[in-house]
Amino acid sequence: MRVRTTAAIAAVSSLALLTGCGAADMTKQASPFANAQGAKTVTLSVQSWVGAQSNVAVAQYLLEHELGYRVDTVQVDEVPAWDALSQGRVDALLEDWGHPEQEQRYVKDKKTIAPGGDLGVTGHIGWYVPTYFAKQHPDATNWKNLNKYADQFRTPESGSKGQLMDGSPSYVTNDKALVKNLKLDYKVVFAGSEAAQITQMKQFAKEKKPFLTYWYTPQWLFEKVPMTEVKLPPYKEGCDADPEKVACAYPHTPLQKYLNADFAENGGEAAAFLKKFKWTTEDQNEVSLMIADKKMTPEDAAKKWVDSHKSTWKKWLS
Question: What are phi and psi of 186, to 5 degrees?
Fold first, then answer.
C-alpha cells in the first residue's frame, strides 16, 4: 500500500532507488541481529506508512520492556520485505495488504514464511474527494461522473487532464489501469511518499481546493481532513487478477502478519507474542496520530498507548 509519515520515508525512498523495481535481494539492508542464534533479538520490518510504523513501535516497546528483547528494525518496501522475511533477514512483517504471488511462493511453495495471524485491522484502498467538495457536488462521488469534473482537478503536473494523486509508486495500486479501462480523463500523478501526499492534501484542504486522491483506511488523516470515498465499479473476487484489465474497486482486506518460518517455530516468547499481537483500527489510529500529527517519537507514542491500554496488551503476553 500502500500505504502509505516520519523520517522512515527518506530511508525507504533511498532503498527504492537502490533496489529498483525488479531487484528484491535485501542483503545490503539486512540487520545483523536477524535470525541470530541463541540471542534474545528480534528484527521487525517497517513499512513506509505510519500505520505500519505504529504496529512496530508498540510491538518493539513491549518486546523490549516486558520481554527483555533487543529489537532491531529494517525499513523496506512491500515486496522486498517478503524476500527479506524469506531469507531470514527480518523475523516478522506486521502489516501486509495482500500479495498473493509472494504468499504462493514463500508460504505455500517454499514454506520459508509462516502466517502470523490477523492484525485485527481491515484495510481498504479507494479514491477520495474532500468532503467539502462532495457536499457541493454529490454526484462526484460516483466514478461515472468524474469526467464532468476533470477540469476542476487539473494541476500543472496533470496537464490537460484531471489529477488522480497517488502516493509512492511502490504501494499496491491499480490506478493507471483503472483510469484507462474506465475511460477517465485523468492522469495518475505520484506524490512520491505518504508524507508528501499528506502535505499536498493538507494544503488543498487549507485552501478549500478540490482534489481526487488514492487513499486508504485506516489512516489518521481522516481526523484532520474529512474525505468521502468515490464509488468505483463493485469489487468481485478475481476482478483484479489481470493487472492490465482491472476495472473494479479495491477489496476490503483483513491485514495480516507474517513470520519467518524458522522464527515462527523457534522464536520463543517473541514469536508467541507477535502471533498474539492484535489490535483495532482505533488503536492503530491513536498511535499514528501521535506520531504523524503530534510529532511524538514512535517510542514515546508507543509508551503513551501502552500506559493507557494495559488490559489490551496483557493478553498478548499470556
Answer: -135, 160
- Grade residue 39 by pLDDT with cuts at 50, 70 and 90: low
For 287, the 3-state DSSP assignment is helix
Cell numbers 527518506 label which residue? 10
**C-alpha cell read off for 166:** 497517488
Distance CA 58, CA 49 (A): 15
Q: Which residue has the higher pLDDT, 26 or 284?
A: 284
SS3 51: helix
Please state the separation of Cα 312 from the chain's center in Å.
23
**CA-to-CA dists, residue 227 to 85, 138, 184, angstroms:** 35, 12, 21
DSSP state of 225: S
pTM: 0.76
End-to-end CA distance of the chain: 32
**DSSP-based three-state secondary structure for 224:** coil
The neighbouring-strand residues paired with 283 are none
pLDDT digits (tens, 9 = 90+) for 80-97: 999 999 999 999 999 999
Q: Cell 502489516 belongs to which residue?
A: 95
Distance, CA of 99 to CA of 58 (rounded, Å): 24
211 burial via Cβ count (<10 Å: 0-12, 13-18, 19+): buried
